[in-house]
Amino acid sequence: MDPDRDSGSVRNISPDEAESLVREGAVHLLDVRTPGEYRDLGHVPGALLLPVDLIAVAVATLPRDDKPILVYCEHGVRSAHAARFLSRAGFEGVLNMSGGMSCWRGPRAHEAGEVCGPAGPSSWLLENADLLPRGGGDVLDVACGRGRHALLLAAAGYRVSAVDDDPGRIAALQIDADRLGLDLRAERLDLETGAVDLGEATRDLILVIHYLHRPLFPALARALRPGGLLLYETFTLDQAASGHPRNPAFLLEHGELARLVAPLVVERERDGEYEGRRVAAVAAVAARRA
User: Fold this and answer.
1) pLDDT tens digits, one per residue of 235-263
2) Which of 72, 75, 163, 270 could form a Cys-Cys staple with 97, CB 3.0–4.6 A?
């Protein structure tokens, strides 16, 4: 099989053609190598770093406009996989750079990449991957937004339910999951009206990122099976000084999160500025039901 032959809506292009498109500003750039390769071997200036094993996140975060996405790695193998994944997810005109950076003769930059920037998953989820249920399990992504974490976990083999109050985001997430054949059910749910029922002992993992509604915590604890894990992260009061949100109703006091998740047992926690974002004052816990 000719490795440069088009595959579906993915078109393989040479590094010279890629360099021309980059000079013209005609593409979005996605580097699917490791952070070390991105920094030490150099990357195309302006490229977003998202390692190939996190590619499912891109479905919910990459722009869908008139610019095609140009995917590259070091030799063109990982990028081919990532490009096909994006094509199956509905992205049009995806480009794969044949030969990768090993054949690139254009300019290179060497600054570190922010894997956990706006287009990536929460670093709290990645740092606690060793605590996740082994061999699959039932996951609930609360206030899932466009579904970057729900898609990532479903692609990793978990049975995922994702809830949010935004009907447009929920509809788009379900379309993406269905296109990819993922075990993911997206549902619109008002999390802030009345007594919310998230189930009783039905989840092995619950994920809540950048969302706070204090009356919801008892429902989160009830929904976990014995031994189940809650990964929770959101903004603290320090965020108000330089960013959004500023409403105290959506900001944690220092030390508050550990109290809110009781009677769950906190295994890990952090409080400070993380994620490589311009402003990201957050508190987080990994807490388990006994």
Assistant:
1) 998 888 877 888 888 999 999 999 999 99
2) 72
Same domain flag for 143 and 93: no
The helix/strand/coil state of 223 is helix
- pLDDT tens digits for range 188-240: 999 999 889 999 999 999 999 999 999 999 999 999 999 999 999 999 988 88
Q: How many structural domains compose the chain?
A: 2
pTM of the model: 0.91
Examine the domain organization and report whether 98 and 222 are in the same domain: no
61 to each of 48, 55, 58, 151, 172, how far by Cα in Å?
A: 11, 10, 5, 11, 12
Residues 185, 89 share a domain: no
> Is 89 in contact with 48 (CB distance < 8 Å)?
no
CATH of the domain at 185: 3.40.50.150
Main-chain dihedrals φ then ψ at residue 217, nearest 5 degrees? -60, -40
DSSP-based three-state secondary structure for 265: strand
* Count of C-beta atoms within a 10 Å radius of residue 80: 23
What is the SS3 assignment for 209? strand
Residue 231: CB partners within 8 Å, gap ≥ 6? 124, 125, 128, 131, 205, 206, 207, 208, 209, 284, 285, 286
